[in-house]
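Deliverable D2.4 — example input (structure tokens):
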């Protein structure tokens, strides 16, 4: 039986990922000035309320916990200012805890040599992760076989929020963006995260992205900054060594669901142009390159039965592969925009099992400090659900 523990900020995050949140106009008007605006490269998670330009990038809870912001008009959770003018999170009119949003970085409006703004290439995910989305276009929706829960295709329409961002980031611009970010916000940047849409040629796309990692490594070689990449695996597995040698610390291949039949149904492009069995083979090969606990497999929690997810957690875990889980969110204009979010009970049971695998196999989350906004992996690693 799930019960909200208001003293546990990870439980509050779990609730926000399932229930969404409302934000008072007096707080929303400060987004883009004091706080970072949401600059998703590849999908949208909230409709922008009428009369406002932006929604927040992330919500910061006590204990430095980072949460995604999913705006829902009927959510029992509300962010507003109390009588003292302090931004607080409320639940059904009860004040729960102080909260804030990701502080807007100093580098966002700096110009790069290609006459674009740095924020069109690099963004802060939470307080500590510098994110670069190398290609904001994906081959799968272009071929009408996009993942059903993803909105990357619609996000590059004329109404898409991502149209201001670069559609393709070259190694030179990536390196320059990182240098610019470090020049103004060095103390904040503890990790670099890459992601990208799929390429028509898996090997060529992997090599192009390896060049970006290599270029950025030149800029951070005097800093201890791990680099993580969520990427489509190559057809030629030996190319993984190249990206490791280029400076990548951890790598993730997202299979989305562990059930093979569900994978084919929900991810027709990944099935057609790569295949479920090859994904598993790629994950297992990556262990030989990156080592135990440095290879991650991403799921979307809420798209299959818990028993199947648990089977995946342990089946991959005993091979040294870490299972991560983003909580499903119905993106506007995606194929699943009307699908309900998973229940809090579902997610709570999932993270308890995930915690068992982390403990059993001695896994560490991708970003031990801060964490990812749409998942509870860091909170699992820190013991909030033991």
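Example output (designed residues):
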């Amino acid at each position: 039986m799930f019960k909200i523990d208001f003293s546990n900020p990870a439980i509050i995050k779990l609730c926000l990922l399932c229930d969404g949140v409302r934000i008072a106009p007096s707080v929303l008007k400060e987004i883009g000035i004091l706080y970072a605006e949401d600059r998703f490269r590849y999908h949208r998670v909230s409709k922008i309320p009428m009369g406002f330009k932006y929604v927040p990038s992330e919500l910061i809870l006590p204990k430095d916990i980072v949460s995604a912001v999913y705006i829902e008009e009927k959510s029992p959770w509300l962010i507003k200012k109390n009588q003292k003018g302090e931004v607080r999170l409320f639940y059904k009119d009860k004040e729960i805890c102080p909260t804030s949003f990701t502080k807007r970085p100093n580098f966002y409006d700096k110009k790069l040599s290609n006459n674009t703004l740095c924020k069109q290439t690099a963004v802060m995910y939470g307080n500590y992760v510098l994110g670069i989305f190398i290609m904001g276009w994906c081959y799968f929706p272009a071929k009408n076989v996009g993942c059903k829960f993803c909105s990357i295709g619609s996000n590059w329409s004329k109404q898409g929020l991502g149209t201001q961002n670069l559609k393709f980031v070259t190694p030179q611009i990536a390196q320059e963006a990182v240098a610019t970010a470090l020049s103004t916000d060095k103390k904040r940047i503890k990790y670099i995260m890459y992601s990208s849409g799929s390429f028509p040629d898996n090997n060529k796309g992997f090599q192009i992205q390896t060049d970006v990692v290599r270029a950025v490594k030149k800029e951070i070689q005097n800093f201890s900054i791990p680099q993580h990449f969520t990427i489509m695996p190559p057809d030629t597995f030996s190319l993984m060594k190249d990206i490791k040698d280029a400076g990548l610390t951890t790598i993730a291949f997202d299979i989305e669901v562990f059930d093979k039949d569900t994978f084919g149904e929900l991810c027709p492009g990944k099935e057609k142009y790569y295949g479920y069995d090859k994904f598993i083979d790629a994950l297992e090969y990556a262990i030989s390159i990156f080592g135990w606990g440095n290879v991650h497999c991403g799921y979307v929690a809420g798209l299959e039965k818990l028993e199947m997810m648990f089977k995946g957690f342990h089946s991959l875990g005993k091979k040294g592969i870490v299972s991560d889980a983003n909580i499903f969110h119905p993106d506007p204009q995606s194929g699943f925009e009307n699908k309900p979010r998973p229940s809090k009970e579902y997610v709570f049971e999932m993270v308890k099992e995930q915690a068992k695998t982390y403990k059993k196999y001695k896994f560490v989350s991708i970003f031990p400090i801060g964490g990812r906004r749409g998942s509870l992996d860091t909170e699992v690693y820190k013991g909030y659900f033991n």
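Residues 202-220 form the longest helix (19 residues).
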